[in-house]
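tool_log.txt
---
The assistant was asked to compare two proteins side by side. It first ran the structure predictor on the initial sequence, then on the second. Raw inputs and outputs are pasted verbatim so the downstream comparison step can read them without reformatting.
(1)
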Amino acid sequence: MFDQNARRESSWATPLRILTITLVLSAGFLYYYFGPTVDDLQGNIPQASVSDYPISLSIGGLNFSVPENFTQFPRARRGGERSSVALYAMMPELTPYTLENKEIFEGNLPDSPLIHFQIETYVSPLTEAQRIERIYLNSVVDTSGEAGPAGLTRFAFSEDTGYREDDLFLGRDENHQLVAFICMQALPGIPSPSCRRDTQLSDTISLKYRFKRVHLNNWRTIDADVHNLARSFLVSDNNNDEAAIQ
């Protein structure tokens, strides 16, 4: 029997439901393919900034003020206490990112003038001198080495080590301290090789930096400039003495 209390459904109800479902599915599709990822939201994707607004950071108990256009990742621009901060600058003046040098900062040419460096709380249990003696020199083919650029001595690593695609360069800085550069070889799969140095900025902070191998001749200037730039970010106050930085 026909239910006299039953309501007659509008002829628009079904098309509206279909339209709503279609819009929801389309929105989900667009967000999945074009929306921000978890890494985007967390600031883990490299993204340059032209702003020179100072970012206040605390790393390893020391306070730093870093202009935003030196930072490589958006997460660092939130400031506060952090375990590390990744920075970059352009030689020779170690200038930060600008619209004028955008192509250089976004490129990776073999002669790129960019220096990437990182300040972090992790400090190796071995000093640089200890790593040279206990690890690096125990992994080379000949401990005598050969003459390298700008007063450095080059050593070839043994094939049975994890450094077989690298070269070791040792030298002494202005304080006559032994320094080590691990440089990638120019192999078919590595058309733009870099050199890197891992050292300490203080008792609680390490400083790591890398640059293109073609600039190894200028290692003394690069080393001094990177250290000076890192020190320039230090904020001196009653609890944060610049003397803590080496």
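(2)
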Amino acid sequence: MDLSKTKYTVLDQIIAADKVRKKIIDTASALYAKKGYAATSIEQIAEMAGVSLPVTYHYVKKKSEIMKLIMEDLLSTFRESLTSHLSSIHDPEEKLGAAVILFCKAVDQQREKILLIYQKSGSLDAASKAKIMQLEVEVSEIFGGIIEEGIEAGLFKEVDIDVMAFNIIMMAHMWVLKKWHLKRRLGLEKFIELQLATILGALRK
């Protein structure tokens, strides 16, 4: 856990706003994972992040708002990573394989945040939940778009694209939610290999 004591001033809100916001998000995620959501205060997050309390309150007024920032950051990062890495791949099957690998690895790298999403999303207000759901839909649409390309190219079967796209997301999340069991005999690479075989087996003609 990175607990750098670098202090961010009010001026940083203007000249390094993204950096400060990211520091708050990463520190909150680490503290929630170590101490638990209920036992972590905004004051502790500010102190461990090296961000003054007034600056921290500029971004969040209550802990549920930090959860919203964590979720937005996580899902936005997934979406941007997938989009940027897939732009040069044109074959639908190759593109889907690359997308699944990237997504599973991103989920593994951010597994503490994924668990927080499942455990604490109920703490969000309706507007925040709606934003998170929309971001997740946007991630699923990346997979859906690739599947649609494969169908149009005659490579994939006609399937319910929305259901298949969310199947892929949930398969990736399985590594986080059930790792306590799977890690006894599978590493991440083997897990991805098995899941990708299942996905492509369901799609190939």
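---
observation on (2): DSSP finds eleven helices and no strands in the chain. The two ends are 46 Å apart (CA to CA).
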